[in-house]
Every structure is written in structure tokens, then in C-alpha cells.
Specification:
Layout: H1 12-16, H2 21-26, H3 32-35, E1 45-49, H4 60-68, E2 72-75, H5 86-103, E3 107-112, H6 115-125, E4 130-136, H7 150-159, H8 172-175, E5 183-187, E6 207-211, H9 223-233, H10 247-254, H11 257-260
Length: about 260
Amino acid sequence: MSATSAIPRPSLWQSILEFRALFEVMAMVPAKPFLKLAPTGEGQPVLVFPGFYTADRSTARLRKYLNSKGFEAYAWEQGRNPGLSEELYYRLEARVQQLSTEHGCKVSLVGWSLGGLYARLLAHRLPEQVRQVVTLGSPFNISQVGAVSPAVERLYERMNPNQQDDPLLAQEALWQQPPPVPSTSIYSKGDGVAHWSFCIDPEDDVTENLHVPSSHLGMTHNPLVMYAVADRLAQAEGNWRPFRLLPHLKQTLLQGPRRLLH
């Protein structure tokens, strides 16, 4: 398939602005008081999936934060995410089943970028073992070339020359559907890698889309994203509610990081 002008893709300026991910890392320090206000977990297991061509190091800050909030956050332990692979999928399926058995409960899945596609497919296939899904800038509705930045598109094609032959591609229609468990899609209209319109679901009683100002590369250490992820994961099973930022927290954010220190 070839890209057409009708297919939205991140603008060149948005792609250039991905460098602001460095500032999102630095924002962690002034945002610490805000992050402490997030709801706490009760030891719930959480499996975190990295994005395309990244490994567990890319999600280390997010997992460290979730652990500090009382969750049991696990790395996927599969090396770099090479793209969509049925062989890799079955290894991840076994890992979800292992964690569910060890903890005696369902496992929440957090997937960044392409990692979110794995999370959604796992939720469809293992609904009795998956508690909820949170995706971060995941273009799960992508079905055409052109929805991601040209540089990422070229890298993916170079890394996966025989992608169309992988059996996992036959499951595309499944991961495009909202999971059968509570799910939150966190997206950014300023995403310079994946166009936001491919990262959202039709909303219903257990499916929501949450816009957060963020770069694509900075989503796993953006303080607003981290707070939202902890808030979603802390909900009691069977009592899921859409995300609502408390008014006083919203006002604090609007007044800037300096206010957070007082």
C-alpha cells in the first residue's frame, strides 16, 4: 500500500519537537510533589511493554514510579521490541499467564507505542487473566502506511522486510477493537511519531481516551502520563471509572511547576 495525502501523519514540526522529551525527563524533579498525590496500589501486578526498537530500559522510570506507588511493575524481558511477531506474542502470552498464576489475580498491561498493540491483543485472547489495559501513544488503528513519521516507517520496514508474512498480521482487526476489559488510551495531539487519530477508541462504559500534552518519546517519563497511569491502575477491580483530575490538582498544574514546590 502507498501513502496518500488523505492519511494523516505527524507533521515535520511535530517530529522535530520530539526533542522536548529531554525536558519531560527534567520535569520529573519539580513534579515529584504532584506525583506523590496519585492513588496508590495494593501490590497489583503490572506488565509494561516497550515501544518499537526499544527495550526495558525505556520503561524503567515508569516502572520505578509504579513500584513506589505500591504496584508490582514488571519488565517484559524480551530484549528490544522488533515489531509485530507471532513468536514474540506467544512468549508474552506465557509471561502474562505466569504472572497471573504467581499473584493469584489478573494482570494489568501497560503498552507504550507498538507495545500497546501486544497489550490489546493479549487482553482479547486472555480476558480472564488481564485486568485492564493502558496504552501510551499506541497507533492500534493503523491500517495504512503513512500514519507514523517517515523515519520510523522506513526503520520498521528495514527491520521487518518480511512483515506481511508474519501470521500475527492476521490479528490486526482484533487489536483494533477495544479490549473486552477496561482500557485507557493515552494520546497526544503533539505526537511526532504516531498520529493521534490512530491512537483512540470509540468510548463506552469501560473504554476511554485521555489526551495528555506530551511528546511520543517522552510518554514513559512524562509526569502527567505517569500520574494518569497510576490513577488508572489503582482502581478496584469491577469498579472502573473514567479518569477525572481533581480540581485542586488541575489548578496546581495550571499554575506551573514552581507552585508544586510550595
